[in-house]
Amino acid sequence: MSWAPDSPVELPDGRLVCGNHGLVVCGSCCVDYSFMDDVLDDDAIEGRVRHPEEYEDDLDRAGALDIEKLDPIRHMEISRGSGSVLPTVFVPPPSATPQSLFPAGIGRKAHPPVTRFIRADDPESLLIYTDGACLGNGQVEPKGGWAFVFGPQELNTTASINERLENQGPLGDYANPTSNRAELRAIIGALRYRNWASEGFTTLVLATDSEYVVKGATEWIRAWLRRGWRKSDGAVVSNVDMWQVFLGEVERWHEYAVKIQLWKIPREWNTEADLLAKEGAQLDEELTYKERLGIVP
Q1: 105 vs 124: CA distance, rounded Å
Q2: Nearest to 130 by CA among 200, 75, 222, 212
Q3: Helix, strand, coil proportions of the chain in percent (round to 5)?
Q4: pTM of the model
Q5: How far is Cα 287 from Cα 270, in angstroms, rounded to an integer?
Q6: What would be the CATH architecture of the domain defined by 88-281?
Q7: Span 266-290, pLDDT tens digits
Q8: What are the sequence ranges of the domains in the chain?
């Protein structure tokens, strides 16, 4: 049987085990995730030597481990959503801004603790800024880029992702780059990047300056679903593949009691993600869909 790269499972305490057997060190998968011990608690385990009995403990844990319940790192299959669960519009208090409502804070349920944009009055609510860009939108050779920012940029820490918009979508469909498509790609990227639930979050608020994304996901989509992804004039809805995967992510997170909300913010409140998306559009061309999964903060 040919070897295939392992997809690690992130346990609630932040440790990693192999996806197939639930082991920290697995000879079958050719992986050793014990390096995460150093990441999780440098002070507590400095100079520590792992003993054979510790590997026996790993085997015992693996025997009791229910891999099927360790999503969303283990089971990241892309699926077409049915519309059974839809995102909702985030309604902020009057005069609230993302910075005032979701200041930088320490998520202490993550291991190690991480810095995120956490709601001041609700530590289980996380804000992620998203944006998409298309240089030469509507022209002969447009270049799309997407980005999301999930925490403040700190020394030696990158809390953002930006990439070139792929020519091929997550379901294998080919499409020309557009700003709307890039906006949806950023949303999908943010939802699939991390096991946000393992950090203690039950609500993900995606801040975007795209009316297309917010109204599309919370208003127009109901009619699109009734018509079989067609508009009122009978034309096929643009970016169907992206919309379907977006819904699939909302439904996947719903299974883990995580709500997805969309906050339409002014462009001037989204400058960092906007700049990163434009930088992403300048990166090398991406022919096929590429996943970005975050393992450590």
Answers
A1: 11
A2: 212
A3: 30, 20, 45
A4: 0.77
A5: 28
A6: 2-Layer Sandwich (3.30)
A7: 999 999 999 999 999 999 999 999 9
A8: 9-69, 88-281
